[in-house]
Write a structure and sequence with these properties.
Radius of gyration: 23 Å
Oligomer: single chain
Distance between the termini: 51 Å
Shape: globular
Structural class: alpha+beta
Helix content: 40-55%
Bound molecules: flavin-adenine dinucleotide
């Protein structure tokens, strides 16, 4: 790796350096794992991360230049998904050096995969009311309880888990964040079937599942801080970028296979977002584009989509200026829900009763019907619309906080679940 601190960090110099590095190292016939090792070692994999952990400590602006250059050269980057989006940033911020050593590079290379084990049957919006119990056992911990809605848990190697470790302090103070090894006898994963026919989520049951002592993230009892950071990252709602159409060679074949498997639980997510891109083509195809009511509703959708785009630009500018993700993520998430619902409304207005028919012979191969039964998910995942409104009211508008009857009360005495 080059001496980052002493390097010329002008945009042109960074662009030239990454292009030269790709020129020297990229071979489409490399195994994907070998290519990702090279990428991680060079620091170009995650250029804004610290130089010791697969990055180069570059500013977000320079990081974007690197990403653009990697894309322009049509080379695979690190794996998409929860490991890179949520777990690694959280480990970088709160994990011990030992945890980072064990997991950062293996996440960047795709050797390990992750799921998020936060929600429980009685603790979704009230996440701090969680009751999965982790008790000390020698050097490590034993975990008993249940999680639910755990996307991708059926295939993940590790889980980012919140467990209750102290019942005698107020609810936010008795939570600890852990890395949980998923492939062990004490962990049982049962897939759930959704109303749109997909099966992304799972129930996960723990019966004396073992967690090594060194797999605590941050301090025992400080898990709520980890949870809040994770959720702020999650509300950025990252999506899987499109795969290049010109990719060839072994590394890409393996990257595409990996992506197809990783994206399986998310393949209905475009429909969950309401498919606003299909609204005008559908109105034209079905002869409804001159209907004044349809036109009015399409205009309303475009209005929402454009203001959300400007909001996202503003958030990106704040991030580029070095701000951490915060309450503004709630504005973006709420905007996505409103766009999705309006898009679904316009689709059903255009399609009429035919929009309810599912299956390959239905409108757009059943996509319009799938939109209708997938859109509700976006108002729930990562914190419901009502919870986003509370965050906006309290942290952005400065309105009085929601009363919390459990404040200061030991969790043992709180009615939870
Ligand atoms: C697509 C999708 C993917 C998901 N993936 C994961 C995952 O990988 N890992 C994970 O841990 N979880 C995951 N979840 C779970 C998600 O985080 C929870 O569903 C969400 O936080 C809501 O919790 P709940 O379902 O228990 O609803 P509840 O909290 O029971 O809420 C029920 C209703 O009451 C309302 N409500 C609750 N409290 C308040 C309040 N104080 N004020 C106003 N209204 C309130 C809610 O808005 C909602 O309408 C996923 C969910 C979805 C839909």
């Amino acid at each position: 790796m080059s001496d980052v601190a002493g390097a010329d960090l002008s945009p042109d110099a960074v662009r030239a350096e990454v292009a030269q590095w790709i020129e020297n190292n990229w071979d489409p016939e490399l195994p994907l794992a070998r290519w990702r090792e090279l990428l991680a070692g060079s620091g170009w994999a995650c250029p804004t991360w610290p130089a010791d952990w697969c990055g180069r400590s570059l500013t977000p602006e320079l990081g974007r230049i690197v990403t653009t250059e990697l894309k322009r050269a049509v080379v695979p980057g690190p794996p998409e998904g929860i490991g890179m989006m949520l777990v690694a940033p959280v480990l970088l911020e709160y994990g011990s050096d030992e945890l980072k050593q064990r997991f950062i590079r293996r996440t960047v290379t795709g050797e390990v995969t992750w799921c998020q084990l936060f929600s429980e049957p009685g603790a979704g919006s009230d996440l701090a009311g969680l009751q999965a119990r982790a008790t000390r056992d020698g050097d490590g911990w034993l975990l008993t309880g249940q999680k639910v809605w755990s996307t991708g848990a059926a295939t993940a190697d590790f889980g980012l888990l919140l467990g209750r470790t102290d019942w005698d302090v107020p609810k936010h103070q008795g939570i600890t964040a852990f890395v949980l090894p998923m492939r062990q006898p004490g962990v049982q994963v049962r897939p759930l079937r959704q109303m749109n026919g997909h099966s992304s989520f799972n129930e996960v049951f723990f019966d004396a599942a073992r967690i090594p002592g060194e797999y605590v993230i941050g301090e025992p009892g400080a898990g709520w801080l980890v949870a809040r950071t994770t959720l702020a990252h999650e509300r950025r709602l990252a999506t899987f970028p499109a795969l290049p159409t010109t990719a060839t060679g072994r590394a890409w074949r393996e990257a595409i296979a990996e992506r197809t498997a990783a994206a399986e639980p998310h393949k209905w997510y475009p429909q969950r977002a309401g498919r606003p891109d299909l609204v005008i083509p559908q109105a034209q195809a079905l002869g409804r584009s001159h209907d004044p009511v349809v036109r009015q509703e399409v205009a309303r959708l475009i209005e929402l989509a454009w203001s959300a785009r400007w909001l996202a630009d503003r958030t990106a500018a704040a991030r580029a200026a070095g701000q951490r993700p915060g309450a503004e993520g709630s504005l973006g998430k709420l905007a996505s829900s409103r766009i999705a619902r309006q898009a679904a409304r316009v689709h059903s207005l255009i399609a009429g009763a035919a929009g309810m028919l599912a299956g390959p012979e239905a409108l757009l191969g059943g996509t319009i019907a799938e939109i209708g039964v997938s859109v509700p998910g976006i108002s729930i995942a990562g914190g419901t619309d009502e919870i986003q409104r509370t965050i906006i009211a309290e942290r952005i508008l400065g309105l009085p906080r929601e009363p919390d009857v459990s404040a200061g009360v030991p969790f043992r005495e709180v009615r939870a679940g």
